[in-house]
Amino acid sequence: MTDMLQKSDPATFEIVKNSLYKIAEEMRVVLAKTAYSPLLKSAGDYSCGVFDVRGEMVAQGPDLPIHLGSMPDAVRAVVAVFASDVHDGDVFVHNDPYFGGSHLPDVNVIRPAFHVGELLGYTCLRAHWPDIGSATPGSYGAVTQIFGEGLRIPPLRLVSGGVLNADLEKLIFANVRTPDERKGDLGAQLAATLRATERLRLHDAGHGLLGTADARGIDGSA
Fold it and tell me: Which residues have CB under 8 Å from 125's CB, separation 6+?
């Protein structure tokens, strides 16, 4: 993508760059309007990003640096685990600190974007769930091992080809104190990432750049 952008005029570069930034920002709007918990709706403890096919960040929302710094590792973990086994309509979830997560309450929802059968990249929304299990409400107990912090989710496929893995969903919500509220927050993450992939399809139809995206070309560091 770097070469393509360097060959384009400055106006095209700015249009592409700001289009991707606005996709990340729109994810924030969708989550704020649809999330259940005040920690997300009011406090804004979540972050959004757009990534290329390798998991490199190409755009981010005006979000939390503590999230954004490790989100590329979280997306690259999904790329590494599932490799070529990624399909339109899939959604992945994980919160594992050893796979690019932060602490366990920060749950990543990662959705690939496709256009005419080609993988364009990924959208990721990391949201702080008010409870992810553990012996302490809020999952902020004084523990010395990760096993006491709550439910640890490695990179897993939550949705396959548009079909929700109901068993995995039941497992997650059986291990939190407020399952109805968590289900609402997860639904908001799914809605926000879906909106972002829809925008990426429109973006690619107009500019045809993201499928070969190079993050350095978008942020100007190349």
Answer: 27, 31, 46, 47, 48, 108, 109, 189, 192, 193
The whole-model pTM stands at 0.88
* Radius of gyration for the chain, computed over Cα atoms and rounded to the nearest angstrom: 17
Distance CA 186, CA 180 (A): 10
Query: With 0-12 CB in 10 A as exposed, 13-18 as middle and 19+ as buried, what is 100?
Result: buried
Position 139: which residue type? S
Count how many Cα atoms sit within 13 Å of the Cα of residue 45 in the half-sphere of its side chain: 15
In sequence order, which residues have a C-beta less than 8 Å from that of residue 75 and are 6 or more positions away? 49, 51, 55, 57, 100, 108, 110, 122, 124
Letter for the amino acid at 106? D
Euclidean distance between CA atoms 119 and 117, whole angstroms: 7
> Tens digits of per-residue pLDDT, 160-193?
999 999 999 999 999 999 999 999 999 999 999 9
What is the maximal distance between C-alpha atoms in the chain? 57
Q: Is the pLDDT of residue 80 over 90?
A: yes
Helix (H) or strand (E) holding 99: none
